[in-house]
Amino acid sequence: MLFDLKEYENKKVHFIGIGGVSMSGLAAILLNSNIKVSGSDFKESENVKRLREKGAEIFFGHHKENITDQDIVVYTAAIREDNEELMQARAMGKITYDRAEFLGHIIQNFTNSIAVTGTHGKTSTTSMLSAVAMAADADPTILVGGNLPLIGGNYRIGDSDLFITEACEYKASFLRFPGKVALILNIEADHLDYYRDLSHILDTFREYLTVMPKDGTVVANADDPNMDYVLKDAKVKTLTFGIRKGELRAKNISYDKAGRAAFSVYREDAYLTDISLMVPGEFNIYNALGAIGASLSSGISLEAIRKGLEGYLGVDKRFQHLYTKNDVMVID
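^ thats the sequence. predicted structure below, dont judge the formating
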């Protein structure tokens, strides 16, 4: 691995909620670097099984007795302050990180990182980017918020400097792990148990641009009505995309009987390539445009972008076709 985890050598890291989509991927990164890992969760799962097979010590249930010889404890935003393990770790003077802070610590060690954020489409677009990176033989490390058949789960450990991850805006956690390339898909009023209102959300996205690397690039949906405000006064490079406006545009759009789009991609007035998607709907055109912009900003070739997107078959539970019987189609 090109990122430096020497500071964790001879230490043991415990994950509270180790079976979670993001937590399991972080644990796998450490295990792949021969760092001792333990973790707790409420039940068995495929993620937990995979980690146990890699050597993780797994506990079921959150109990203070699970905190023993660990040096660092990582917890998710879903863990309450009165969680037995978290309280015990703090009482014993152990180093504690929330998931976002720990992910930020990891992502800084990659020279080429892509963080996908926005209200909708993060998992699908992160999966598209994964397909593109795999088509480019970029050997990426990936954290995705769903089961992606292409990589056999929700994470992949690569051996290059490319890191692709979702960046959830819940509780402003994405401020802790800005990517060198930030992809903002769309912004709506969401997570209102944390945010006061849409204005609070928009200001947090504006703040996100201020914590990005100075040589970073924000790729943003120009058709989103809130994006102009977010990008105003941005100090990093910007690349916008859209169907109606934006530097990167989808034109000559057509759909087949299954609703899958084919379109031409232009940058300003220059033709780049044609794309035929295997996933349906206009929304996936936007997801694909975002993936194209982030990929170009990360130095991936147009040939690999086209190959990856045209070979992308989707991610589980995101408009996933389960079966068709008696002319009835079942979609998850």
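The first strand starts at residue 12 and ends at 16.
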